């Protein structure tokens, strides 16, 4: 409430102050006010300081734009291949290096892997052992002797035992063997033992089947030669389908990986107990005797089925196809493919395909590490050693390494993973652990880490990850997350916007973190870290706070003088603004798209709070200093405070990018209140420097038009100065519209006073320079000066819009109601109105200087017209004046703007009218031809100044002095009788306007008898007659007569009885006048009622008069002119007492000394006027 009252009081004070700017400069000049004294020469140093002041201020105003440009340039510079800065992290994140002993054991494992390679290598694998050994020697930094020792040890060790894992997935498009159009397929598969080359050749000519012909089986010496029982496996039967899906997995031990063969049969199940059942029972027993017995049963069943005719065995299983796959043809990484079913002989008809997944691996390894460590751990160590070596030998952009290794490395790693039977998921986890761990010590490309995470997610199978592997994966996620959070905290140093490579890395890192927190694997192994975004928020907040503290530690804004402290604060705030700009432009997009964290809001709110706290403390010290009486705000201090304000405003402007709920709770919301007292003093400094600048502009102005304009350099400089000051206010962007009223009033007052002061200085400059100047050059300079004043006035006409007065009015209306709005409107517009008046006054002074220069010539030409004899033609008499005017018009038209040209034309027109009027009045009573000539002159000038619509408007010209002159000329051309008639017309017109005068009134009744041509006048009574006697009363009587006398030459005046000592006489007297129609038809024909005060010893005194036109009583159709005229209502005529000598007609008649009628009329009126003067 107190604030509203203060604002109201301020409004009232501003209204009281908004008198004319001229009157405010009239008090004696003081040293502190540059506007209260005449211009003096401006010291050169002061003018230079003012110029530098505005240059520095302009630089401050351009700060935000420069900041945006710098941010864009920064991003463009970052587009080059500048390597990103080092990513310094906590040493605790870096894994320990492996010992030499462990390295030797790991080397043994690698050599063992090379020696025991199996499978068909892909084209990219290295096939030479020597080449692989040479690579491993470099990786493990081994000597030749050490290598030979370890190689010999491996060669002497027991060779690896191999196993085959087969997954029978499904089949498709099988042959239909049952009557229903389907089959009931199942698979029987096993390993055929290694064969000699000759047997292998024979095998190519025949197809093997588990169901052997009887004769072939009988030739075998033992069942073992046919097929070992331990190698037989069978799937489930899938009823009634041609596209069975089994998804069953089998494991076979391999004796000879180079020569053994995988054989698979697909049968249609028909009998109750078939080979499938026999195989199942067979696989349930142990011991060679049991196996042999059951195998004989299988063979017997096979012989029975094989020897029976197609019609004798209804329940025999039908053959659907087979597959033979040599183990030495299986790729290193295994098979995952569709195999076409083959017939067992040329007579067999089969169709369809079967999908198998196969992989050969070692079931037993004779190495030291394999006996004491897990395959996962060993493979991780091997991969880590290779990765470290490979990365160390990357020459170009090692920070951008995508993890790709050489063929030799890939060969060793692939064989080791296959041999140790690592699943794709285990391999993915190991690669992630290895690369993410290596990354903490030496950077790799984040896209590699993201790709590894996606691989884990694609292969994820929770039951397959238990125990140590789960714990290790959890630790790797934790360490990587903490590593990334550490980098996020130091992102401004590690991922600067100046490096496009760093920003790209940062984006990929964030995408990796964002992807990781949504992974099934992460949620499974790290169930307690389900709010990773909160950790990211904390890291960003902490990193931002530490970065700001580093700024403070770097610039130390708490040290030095108060001004030095503020300058350091400006640097700090500008650095914060630049950081916020980068956050909004770059970092926020990365964070939001990758991890759905609003980086900008977090960082901005943190920085905004810290900046607000520091600046608030500093500004409290400033305000405390400025409040001391002996303290004043220096210019440099003012500039620093202004720059600090602008910097804070820029920082606050970023709030528009915040969510609405966050933008309402900012520490900088009321930052402007910290600067109130300082801004007042700052505006005074701006005003002083503006005055210096204006003074210099006037001193250096040569009053020559600038290019393509009609004003000079000083006007350009003044409007530029005003524009800069307005821009200063715009940049201040004072958020409190109601509180801004005081500043806007101050600014408006400064603008107006500076504009008026400028126009005064220009006028003084013109006045001082007019002596000794030729007419033409002086006229040009004067026109330029006029244009300067108008140019400044027009520029200030935009103040309401530029300073946003409507916003202030609305704010005051909300604060103080309609009264506050009206007072603001009056205060601000009052200042502008007074300024406009003062500028118009100065413009009139300049125009007066111009017309004063023209006055002698114009007077000479008017005199020429006046003295020209009647024999000279009117055109010849007027032509010298018109030629002079045309020459003058050409000059001022070329040098004046349109509005000033109109003003000068108007001034010249009024001057000529006054000069002609003076000439006419000085020559009253001369022949009519004299007035006709001047009438012609006026009409010629009228057309000249109108210029067919291009000049002054006829409406404007035919007003004021023109009407007076026109009337003067018209009346001077009239006869004396016509002038007298005009006199009575004016009196009749004046009578109609009278209402309740202080001279009283008279009540009369007039009616006309047309047949008798008799006018009857009843004077009834009078009221409120003025007191003309010493007793406070009067002795009134009324004189009634027909006027003008020349129209009624035979009519005599008549009078009533005198009524003594009264101001309200009652007469009730009748008077008769003869009036013909020819007489009453004139508009000027009238009755005059003159009220006189009777005096015994002196002349009677004039009390007042009234007139009544005869047209009101005598014209046919009037009620007074009928038989019932006597019954009409009385007329109330108000009395008046005007001095006849004040009328132009009186002066014209008086000048006609040779006219008896004119002199007689004047004499009678002068007697009345003399009577009035004697009172």
From TrEMBL:
Domain C2 residue range list: 143-302, 998-1123
Main location: cytoplasm
Annotated ranges, domain MHD2: 875-983
GO cellular component: late endosome membrane; plasma membrane; presynapse; recycling endosome membrane; secretory vesicle; trans-Golgi network membrane
One of the record's GO molecular function terms: SNARE binding
Keywords (A to Z) from UniProt: Cytoplasm, Endosome, Exocytosis
GO BP, one annotated term: positive regulation of neurotransmitter secretion
Record Pfam families: C2 (PF00168), MUN (PF06292)
Highest taxon in the source lineage: Eukaryota
Region of interest called Disordered, as start-end residue ranges on this chain: 15-42
Coiled-coil stretches noted in the UniProt entry, renumbered to this chain: none
Subcellular location field: Cytoplasm; Late endosome; Recycling endosome
MHD1 domain ranges (all copies): 642-762
UniProt-listed SUPFAM superfamilies: C2 domain (Calcium/lipid-binding domain, CaLB)
Similarity annotation: Belongs to the unc-13 family.
Name of protein: BAI1-associated protein 3 isoform X1
Biological source species: Betta splendens (Siamese fighting fish)
Lineage: Eukaryota, Metazoa, Chordata, Craniata, Vertebrata
Gene name linked to the record: baiap3
């Amino acid at each position: 409430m107190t604030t509203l009252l203060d604002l109201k009081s301020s409004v009232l004070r501003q209204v009281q102050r908004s008198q004319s700017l001229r009157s405010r400069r009239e008090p004696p000049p003081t040293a502190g006010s540059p506007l209260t004294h005449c211009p003096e020469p401006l010291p050169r140093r002061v003018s230079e300081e003012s110029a530098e002041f505005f240059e520095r201020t302009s630089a401050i105003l351009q700060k935000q734009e420069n900041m945006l440009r710098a941010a864009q340039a920064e991003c463009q510079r970052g587009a080059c291949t500048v390597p990103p800065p080092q990513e310094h992290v906590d040493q605790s994140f870096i894994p320990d290096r492996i010992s030499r002993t462990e390295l030797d054991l790991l080397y043994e494992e690698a050599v063992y892997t090379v020696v025991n390679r199996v499978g068909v290598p892909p084209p990219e694998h290295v096939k030479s052992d020597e080449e692989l050994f040479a690579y491993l020697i470099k990786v493990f930094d081994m000597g030749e002797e050490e290598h030979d020792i370890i190689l010999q040890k491996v060669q002497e060790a027991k060779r690896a035992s191999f196993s085959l894992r087969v997954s029978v997935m499904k089949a498709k498009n099988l042959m239909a063997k049952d009557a229903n159009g389907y089959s009931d397929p199942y698979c029987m598969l096993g390993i055929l033992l290694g064969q000699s080359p000759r047997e292998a050749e024979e095998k190519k000519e025949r197809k093997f089947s588990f169901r052997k012909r009887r004769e072939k089986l009988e030739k075998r010496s033992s069942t073992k030669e046919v097929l070992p029982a331990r190698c037989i496996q069978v799937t489930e039967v899938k009823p009634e389908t041609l596209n069975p899906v089994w998804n069953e997995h089998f494991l076979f031990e391999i004796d000879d990986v180079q020569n053994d063969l995988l054989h698979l049969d697909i049968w249609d199940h028909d009998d109750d107990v078939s080979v499938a059942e026999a195989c199942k029972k067979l696989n349930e027993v142990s011991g060679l005797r049991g196996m042999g017995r059951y195998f004989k049963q299988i063979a017997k069943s096979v012989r029975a089925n094989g020897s029976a005719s197609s019609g004798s065995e209804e329940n025999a299983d039908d053959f659907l196809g087979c597959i033979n796959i040599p183990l030495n043809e299986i790729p290193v990484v295994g098979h995952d493919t569709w195999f076409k079913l083959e017939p067992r002989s040329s007579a067999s008809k089969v169709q369809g395909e079967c999908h198998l997944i196969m992989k050969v691996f070692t079931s037993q390894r004779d190495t030291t590490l394999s006996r004491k460590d897990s395959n996962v751990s060993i493979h991780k160590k091997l991969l880590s050693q290779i990765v470290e070596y490979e990365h160390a030998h990357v020459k170009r952009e090692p920070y951008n390494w995508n993890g790709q290794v050489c063929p030799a490395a890939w060969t060793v790693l692939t064989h080791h993973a296959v041999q140790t039977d690592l699943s794709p998921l285990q391999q993915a986890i190991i690669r992630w652990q290895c690369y993410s761990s290596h990354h903490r010590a030496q950077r790799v490309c984040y896209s590699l880490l993201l790709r590894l995470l996606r691989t884990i997610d694609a292969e994820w199978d929770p039951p397959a990850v238990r125990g140590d592997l789960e714990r290790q994966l959890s630790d790797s996620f934790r360490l990587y997350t903490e590593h990334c959070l550490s980098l996020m905290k130091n992102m401004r140093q590690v991922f600067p916007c100046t490096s496009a490579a760093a920003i790209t890395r940062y984006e990929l890192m964030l995408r990796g973190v964002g992807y990781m927190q949504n992974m099934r694997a992460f949620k499974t192994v790290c169930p307690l870290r389900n709010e990773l975004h909160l950790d990211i928020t904390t890291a960003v907040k902490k990193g931002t706070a530490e970065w700001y503290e580093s700024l403070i530690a770097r610039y130390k804004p708490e040290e030095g003088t108060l001004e030095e402290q503020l300058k350091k604060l400006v640097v700090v705030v500008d650095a914060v603004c630049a950081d916020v700009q980068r956050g909004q432009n770059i970092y926020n997009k990365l964070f939001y798209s990758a991890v759905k964290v609003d980086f900008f809001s977090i960082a901005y709110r943190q920085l905004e709070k810290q900046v607000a706290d520091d600046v608030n403390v500093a500004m409290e010290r400033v305000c405390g200093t400025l409040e001391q009486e002996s303290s004043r705000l220096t210019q440099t201090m003012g500039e620093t405070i202004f720059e600090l304000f602008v910097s804070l405003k820029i920082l606050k402007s970023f709030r528009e990018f915040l969510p609405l709920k966050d933008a309402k709770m900012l520490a900088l919301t009321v930052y402007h209140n910290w600067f109130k007292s300082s801004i007042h003093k700052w505006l005074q400094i701006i005003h002083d420097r503006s005055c210096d600048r204006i003074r210099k502009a006037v001193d250096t102005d040569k009053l020559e038009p600038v290019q393509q304009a009609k004003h000079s350099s000083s006007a350009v400089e003044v409007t530029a100065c005003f524009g800069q000051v307005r821009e200063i206010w715009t940049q201040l962007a004072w958020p409190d519209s109601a509180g801004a009223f005081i500043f806007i009033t101050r600014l408006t007052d400064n603008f107006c006073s500076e504009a008026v002061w400028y126009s005064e200085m220009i006028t003084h400059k013109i006045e001082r320079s007019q002596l000794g100047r030729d007419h033409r050059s002086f006229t040009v300079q004067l026109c330029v000066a006029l244009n300067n004043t108008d140019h400044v006035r027009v520029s200030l006409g935009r103040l309401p819009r530029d300073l946003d007065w409507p916003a202030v009015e609305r704010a005051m209306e909300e604060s103080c109601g309609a009264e506050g709005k009206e007072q603001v409107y009056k205060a601000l517009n009052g200042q502008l109105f007074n300024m406009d008046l003062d500028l118009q006054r100065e413009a009139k002074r300049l125009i007066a200087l111009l017309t004063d220069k023209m006055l002698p010539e114009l007077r000479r030409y008017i005199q020429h017209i006046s003295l020209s004899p009647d024999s000279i033609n009117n055109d010849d008499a007027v032509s010298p004046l018109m030629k002079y005017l045309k020459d003058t018009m050409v000059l001022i038209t070329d040098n004046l703007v349109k509005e000033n040209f109109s003003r000068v034309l108007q001034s010249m027109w009024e001057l000529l009218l006054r000069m002609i009027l003076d000439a006419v009045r000085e020559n009253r009573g001369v022949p009519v031809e004299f007035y006709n000539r001047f009438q012609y002159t006026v009409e010629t000038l009228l057309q000249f100044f109108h210029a067919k619509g291009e000049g002054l408007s006829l409406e404007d010209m035919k007003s004021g002095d023109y009407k007076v002159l026109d009337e003067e000329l018209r009346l001077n051309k009239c006869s004396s009788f016509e002038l007298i008639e005009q006199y009575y017309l004016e009196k009749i017109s004046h009578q109609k306007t009278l209402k309740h005068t202080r001279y009283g009134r008279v009540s009369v009744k007039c009616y006309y008898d047309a047949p008798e041509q008799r006018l009857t006048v009843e004077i009834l009574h009078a009221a409120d007659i003025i007191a003309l006697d010493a007793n406070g009363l009067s002795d009134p009587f009324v004189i009634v007569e027909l006027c003008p006398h020349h129209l009624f030459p035979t009519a005599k005046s008549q009078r009533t009885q005198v009524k003594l000592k009264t101001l309200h006489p009652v007469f009730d007297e009748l008077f008769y006048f003869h009036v013909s129609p020819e007489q009453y038809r004139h508009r000027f024909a009238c009755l005059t009622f003159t009220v006189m005060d009777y005096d015994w010893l002196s002349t009677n005194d004039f009390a007042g008069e009234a007139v009544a036109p005869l047209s009101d009583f005598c014209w046919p159709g009037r009620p007074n002119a009928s038989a019932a005229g006597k019954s009409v209502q009385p007329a109330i005529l108000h009395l008046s007492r005007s001095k006849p000598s004040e009328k132009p007609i009186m002066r014209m008649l008086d000048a006609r000394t040779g006219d008896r009628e004119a002199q007689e009329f004047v004499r009678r009126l002068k007697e009345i006027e003399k009577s009035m003067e004697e009172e």
